[in-house]
Amino acid sequence: QVQLVESGGGLVQPGGSLRLSCAASGFTLDYYAIGWFRQAPGKEREGVSCISSSDGSTYYADSVKGRFTISRDNAKNTVYLQMNSLKPDDTAVYYCAAAGASRALCVPRRYDYWGQGTQVTVSS
Q1: pLDDT at residue 36 in the model
Q2: Are 86 and 68 in contact (CB under 8 A)?
Q3: Are the C-beta atoms of 4 and 34 separated by less than 8 Å?
Q4: Which is nearest to 103 in space by CA: 68, 65, 55, 48?
Q5: Which residues contact 98 (CB under 8 A, 6 or more apart)?
Q6: How many other CB atoms sit within 10 Å of the CB of residue 82?
Q7: Among positive and negative, which fits the CA dihedral 97, 98, 100, 103?
Q8: Which parts of 26-91 are beta strand (E)?
C-alpha cells in the first residue's frame, strides 16, 4: 500500500525554523518526483517546493526562495523540507506528494499520491 506520512509541523514564532519530513512506505521514492504543497484556510493548494528524481533539480515558489530547502534521503526513503525565517504567511497545512514520474511540474494536479498533511502555524 502506497503511503506518505508527514511529520515535523507545529507552532513556531516568526523568524523560527522547522523541518518537515515525508516518509514513504509501499514504494521507493528514488524513482518519483516529490513535492511539498501547502494550503491555507480559504486558499487553493499551492506548490512550495519540488524535487525531481532524475537529476535532483529543484523548484521553489518565489515566496519561499532563500528560506526553504528541499532534500531527499533515498536510503531512508524520506524527503525533507527545511523551513527557515518563517513568516505568519507560511501558516498552512503542508502536504507532501509523489508524482507518477521522475519529473513533474510543481502543481498539485501532477501529483498522484498524497500524505495526510501536517499543520504549520507561525505566530507570536
Answers
A1: 98
A2: no
A3: no
A4: 55
A5: 2, 4, 24, 27, 29, 32, 33, 34, 35, 111, 112, 113
A6: 15
A7: positive
A8: 34-39, 46-51, 58-60, 68-73, 78-83
CA angle, residues 116, 93, 63, in degrees to nearest 5: 130
pLDDT along the chain (124 residues), means of 10: 94 98 92 96 97 93 98 94 98 96 94 97 97
Amino acid making up residue 91: T
Phi-psi region of 77 (alpha: psi -120 to 50; beta: other; left: phi over 0): left
CA 84 to chain CA mean position, Å: 14
For residues 4 and 55, what is the distance between their CA atoms, to the nearest angstrom? 22
In the structure grid, which three cell numbers stand for residue 3, read together?
503511503
Separation of alpha carbons 12 and 28, rounded Å:
32
